[in-house]
Amino acid sequence: MKIMFDINKIIRPNIKNLKPYSSARDEFKGDASVYLDANENAFGSPLSQNYNRYPDPMAYDVKMELSKIKGVPARNIFVGNGSDEAIDILFRSFCNPGIDNVIIVPPTYGMYEVSANINDVQLKRVNLTEDYQLNLEGIAEAIDKNTKLIFICSPNNPTGNSINREDIETILANFEGIVVIDEAYINYSRQKSFIQELTEYANLVVLQTLSKAWGLAALRVGMAYASEEIIEVFNRVKPPYNINEASQKLALEALKNVKQVNDWIKEILKERDTLVLALKNFDFVIDIYPSDANFILVKTINADGIYQYLTQQGIIVRNRNKVELCEGCLRITVGTPEENQALINSLKNFKND
């Protein structure tokens, strides 16, 4: 039997009663010939393109384009300053500092812990199993009356694997708080997105980003997909103009090039397979874990030594040796064919002293 989710039971009282800031662009929607309402510089910008006017506070055009691509109504979409803004808003909206707690499943994306610490929210860790899947029994034992959020990254960072869908559905059906599924790498995965389950689970929040497959990391545009009532909370708490005009325009332009992104995804997956085969030839490589992302987690006999050596060669990978359950591991992003070959060529000269 599925537990009924009630947002009023978990939202912070001050957020429930919060009257959001009303910006000039909230109070007037539409077009006009003269704008004298927002104390902007009417003479323009010292740039080739004018940025003197405040942007759309709700990034409506971006949401509409995302709606077409994802098949989700715009009212179920929040656009944030990277998905990190959505993570922070979840803490500020639903977790009472010093009282509530959240659950994470390490090894996982480090920003969940940082946001918990910033917001003075207790963090409960329930480590993944040795095959990097959910410990359902451990999660069930960790949940108490003050547990508000559970974060699940799938495909997971830094391990690269997708989390078993049935296990996630079990948590969604039995947890009274919000389950946050971070799908930053979903474009590379063989599993379908949980966006399709939004109508099934009222307590579901799906995070995605334009930083990975879409190649827009510098623009800082992330998305949260959720029920209309949860999105309404996001919009109430966010800063008035959280996505700048330049990012909105460029994101909108990029979202019209789905074919280009899909072509890149195919090439990256092909390069990932080629990279895995090449790395298996080195005797200092112990294991390469299955990946549904644009990176691979490689277990080695000397992660620190290999990392330092590659750095000296001008090649930077991510050393995950000190991360629990990732001891001896390097996380390697799939690059261009030339970059991947440069990595392999450099490793051929590595000597494990």
From TrEMBL:
InterPro entries on file: Aminotrans_II_pyridoxalP_BS, Aminotransferase_I/II_large, HisP_aminotrans, PyrdxlP-dep_Trfase, PyrdxlP-dep_Trfase_major, PyrdxlP-dep_Trfase_small
Iron keyword on record: no
Record-level Gene Ontology MF annotations: histidinol-phosphate transaminase activity; pyridoxal phosphate binding
Enzyme class: transferase
Modification sites for N6-(pyridoxal phosphate)lysine: 212
Cofactor: pyridoxal 5'-phosphate
Keyword Amino-acid biosynthesis: yes
Reactions that this protein is recorded to catalyse: L-histidinol phosphate + 2-oxoglutarate = 3-(imidazol-4-yl)-2-oxopropyl phosphate + L-glutamate
Single GO biological process annotation from the record: L-histidine biosynthetic process
Family matches, as HAMAP family: HisC_aminotrans_2
Protein name: Histidinol-phosphate aminotransferase
The organism of origin for this protein: Pedobacter cryophilus
